[in-house]
Amino acid sequence: MQHHGVSFDATSNGEGSLGSRKELSFAFNPSIMLEKVSANVTSCDNLAIQFDCYLSNEQSNKWQTGAIRWNLGLGGNEVTFTPWHPEYEDVYKEVDMSFSEGWKTLTFPLKEFANAGGKDVSDIMTKVTGKNGSFMFVFGNFDYPAGSSKNRSRGEAVTNQLFYFGNFRIVPYTKPVE
Hints:
This protein has 178 residues and is mainly beta. Helix content is 8%, strand content 28%.
């Protein structure tokens, strides 16, 4: 098992270090994930990337800072997930960010990815073959909506935060009935 880490002093003394974002990035091959998709599924809108995660910290194991960013290798950050942000209103807002009960499964519909939503799986496969995508956990200042330069926040300071990620997979996606 490999361990990777990133840290920054989330106090007033560490505030200057946020000028240069702190991130931990993992490369993955999106074409290998998409090869696993059933031939019956032709639209990216019917797929999602899913994984399990766990967080522990001295603030009751609650996610209060940092973001998950996805990039399928098609250019730019396609999804920035900051559910703790006070202005956050996206589809994922209903996710409980307390990990006091244990591991959580997070699901990211491909239709929410800037370069995959509304596209055919075969088109995306052609574009990502031979390219690496990235999954990142980032500490920094984030705006909402992403890219707007508005409502900037870094979240709340945490101490001894550890985030664990595993079991990445591509799955069929249907939005739960409300």
